[in-house]
Amino acid sequence: MGPEQKTNSLPRSETEVDREYVEAYPINWNVANQELINAIFNSRSHEGIDEASIYIHNPFCPKICAFCNFNVIEYDSRLYKNYLNALSTELQMYKNHPDIDGKRVTAIYFGGGTGSMMRPSDVGVLLNGISDIFTVDSDAEITVECHPNTIGERRFREYKSVGVNRVTLGLQSFSDVNLTAIGRDHTSEKNRRILSEALGAGFRNVGMDLMYRLPNQDMKNFTQDLEAIAEFLPDTVSAYSLESDGTGLSEEKSKIPSDAVDREMFYLVGDYLKAKGYGRYMQPDFALPGKECRYVVNAWQAPQKFLLGLGAGANTHYFGGHSWTNVYPVIEYIKALHSGCSPVVSGSSVDIEELKAKYMVLGVRGISIKKSEFNGLFGEEIIHNFGPQISGLIAKGWLHDSEETFEVTRQGLPYINNISKMFYTANNVGKPQPWYNDIHTFVPNKFYKINER
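Above: the chain sequence. Below: its structure as tokens.
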């Protein structure tokens, strides 16, 4: 069964919070063939978009966390070396891409897996490779995603020396009980030390991840995590409710706080951080004034920028007029590139109607949708394209029509995925995000070289 086959349409009632995280759009992908590969590497995107982000996936981790459903494997030194060679080969495939002209890269993100398991020298090599092919802004945001067990003062300095100016730390909690419950093998004391060291290292921006709705967590415990954040005041905080389905924590479901407690935690994190000077700039993301993560803004805030993904299982959200994913298994990714083929295994073209829908589908995560920018990009009014959807959301109290913008309301915030799906085109309605299929294990019958006939 290939990733184009639907296995879970994830039906939701009107009042139930949809917990399927809407990240990719459009999602009516098909298994790659020669025609798709040629189109991806020979097409241009919408001329009105001139910024791009580049995502580099490092799948290696010191340990696989129980709550993780990303494309990850445990570290192997030989495989790591081969993987880096494959990454460099994939990057070179874009050297003459027609979509590069007139585009500038404003954000580069090393994620995972564990981004910080990539050596600083290797990050430097990849950054140089990107600069050789793309026009990279002199003040581009360059982020490495870090696991506390792989980082420290020396590593922070080394990352800075090769051009990294932002780190985000996967701390998740400041409670040893919580960390043990989700299978993390670092301590709250280490989290505090690493956060302090990162803030003192001179990065332009330091972010952290916080998880809540953890096994047996109550409001008092969660408040203590928020109080710890207030001690340090990192530049950004990304707060995520635990999703245990399909992970190693699925058998712990009886210990997961109820939906009512989850809703209380959701509102508490927003209200608490607002009182400490943070603004919500995406549904799960908060920043001190002027410290918003450029990569996050580029990916979701309307109008979204280009997002080119490199690495095993990396997703490209819009580049060369298409969206797609690379093969997930690391060994297959390496094999494809070693044989001179593209690692793309599934994707689709993004026509103007899908691009309009994407403006709204992903844009609502940024809370505020600017009417004038839609008009400037497409030469049409939002309301003329999505009038019934907008009217329905306003009637529910989930969306507010101001003079210049459409705003997701406080009442609508927990329903952000429900709201996103209101703007799906007919070709995407009822289809799940690609990773709800068997795409993590899918290997095609063959990979394809660029421009073959």
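The first strand starts at residue 30 and ends at 31.
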